[in-house]
Amino acid sequence: MKELNRTTVPGTAKLPIKVVQFGEGNFLRAFVEYVIDRLNLEAGFNAGVAVVQPMNGGLIPTINAQEGLYTLFMRGIKKETLIDQKRLISCIQKGIDPYKDYQELLALAQEDSLEFLISNTTEAGIAYNPEDKDYVECPKSFPGKVTALLHKRFLHYKGATDKGLTIMPCELIDRNAQALKEIILQYAQDWKLGGEFTQWVEQSNSFHNTLVDRIVPGYPKDDLEAYESRLEYKDRLIVTAEIFFLWVIEGDENLLKKIPFHKIDEQILVVADMQPYRTRKVRILNGAHTAVVPLSLMYGNKTVKQTLESPLTENFLKQAVFAEINLTLPLPKEEVESFAEEVFDRFRNPFIVHLLSSIALNSISKFKVRVLPSLLAYQEKFGELPTHLTFSLACMIRFYKGEWQGEALPVQDDQQIKDFFQTLWALGDYDEIAGRALSNRDLWDMDLSQVPVLAPSVAKALQWIDALGIEEGLRKFSESKKVIG
Predict the structure, then answer these.
(1) 22, 178, 199, 429 - which has most CB atoms within 10 Å?
(2) Which residue ranges form the domains of the chain, and what is each CATH number?
(3) Average pLDDT of span 206-218
């Protein structure tokens, strides 16, 4: 089998460096490079990418050996149709390891065609490191490297206002671009880079908060032969991803003039405020996962896909999302329901094995952020508790007992939280268990026992779960909830 490079695979012309990207991992190559590749082919974007390795040790040698080429496989279900696509991605022009050649990174500052900076350096990447005292040597932190690159560009082009960059971080933290900008300005002050540079950073560069959403399993090491059989070349950088794609970017028409996202058929939303979309994702996608996991595990399922294949757990999840969570969200009904339908397609994806036990990690803190706001918003809006989210809360408390019908449950959390629930379940009284669990401010940041009829409702649900099992317990709770209320 031939090697993958631009000689063995024709039609992959070199492109000017328009994008510097910090991060060479699977996600960015299945997300950002996918978009840039489509923009190049369908909208004449003509953008090459220089990929910078953010940490010491990574994929840069392999990327350069394949001259930036690799294959992206996208597989999943869309509106009940099975989709299986592959495409050769060719927009990466070179990879840079700043720990081995720091000057090559700084040389990017002189690229006349450079316009964009994109990143995904994990959630911990956008952080200030006090050990970075200047940029004579390669800074340890990602924001330190960006500061060095920007200052070199400022000096080289003598502060030209048209040589700033459009910066779009993809790290999964709230207001990621704002956080990055604040650290850059802190380094500018600490390193005494001058007021003119600070002004240039603020006025000649644009920072755009983003929200990204795509499941990227990455390199298919467990099923490699099946993927390689579909190729005519040896690819050491195969990356797999789901079909679903969402990129929400805070910006306006000026951003679309720079990069024509609107010219490709993809879910790339340029909006004034991304927070409603962030809330939608957290409440529906993440919230649905968290709401169903304890119930589904105790019902006997092992994966998200099995949860959707079981009539009981599928119906429970649909009711929780479409009849409860969706009704509390501050977006048009059509947008919310369309997103929810796509979420269920993602859950059914036969190419991704998503273990419920993995999602169960730190379930209490996840419930607090992802599910509890929907439960409380529903109660406030309609004056009654949402049946399925309330039952989900009871299942969560029951799950933390650590066993179900003689089998251990995969409770994974801080020892202090696990100890609290072990002490709680030793009490043996459902009203007391529910009351103490809900009134624990360390768990919820509030006293949930003060929410009208929540404590007695959860107590009854716990009693019926233990006495009748999940299916009959849910039926009994659904029939009796209004009586409790």
Answers:
(1) 22
(2) 2-271 (3.40.50.720), 275-484 (1.10.1040.10)
(3) 95
Six-digit token string for 245: 């794609």
Amino acid 485: pLDDT:
46
Element (H, E) at 3: strand 2-3
Both tokens assigned to 447: 């006293």
Q: How far is CA 355 from each of CA 168, 296, 302, rounded to the nearest angstrom?
A: 32, 11, 6
Q: Which of 366, 208, 377 is nearest to 293 (CA)?
A: 366
DSSP 252-265: -HHHHHHS-GGGSS
Locate 154 and state its tokens.
Answer: 């400022």
Give CA–CA dist 193/388, Å, rounded.
56
| SS3 at position 100 | coil
Alpha helices in 191-332 (DSSP H): 195-204, 224-228, 253-258, 275-280, 287-299, 304-309, 311-320
CA distances from 198 to 129, 147, 187, 191, 201 (A): 19, 10, 10, 11, 5
φ/ψ bin of 49: left (φ > 0), alpha (ψ from -120 to 50), beta (otherwise)? beta
pLDDT score at 100:
96
b/e map of 444-471 (b: 16 or more CB within 10 Å)?
beeebbebeebbbbbbbbbbbbeeeebe
Q: What is the C-alpha to C-alpha distance for residues 191 and 175, in angstroms, rounded to an integer? A: 25
State pLDDT tens for residues 107-122.
Answer: 999 999 999 999 999 7
95 touches 58 (CB < 8 A): no
Report residue 287 as tokens.
């919230």
Give mean pLDDT, residues 50-57: 91
Closest to 421 (Cα-Cα) out of 407, 405, 434? 434
Say how far apart CA 376 and CA 210 lie, in whole Å: 27
pLDDT value of residue 11:
64
Q: Report residue 191 as tokens.
A: 């390193």
Between CA 108 and CA 113, with CA 110 as vertex, the angle to 5 degrees is: 85
CA distance 92 to 238: 14
How crowded is residue 345: how many other Cβ atoms within 10 Å of its Cβ? 20
Q: Mind listing the pLDDT tens digit for each residue in 7-38?
A: 888 767 789 999 999 999 999 999 999 999 99
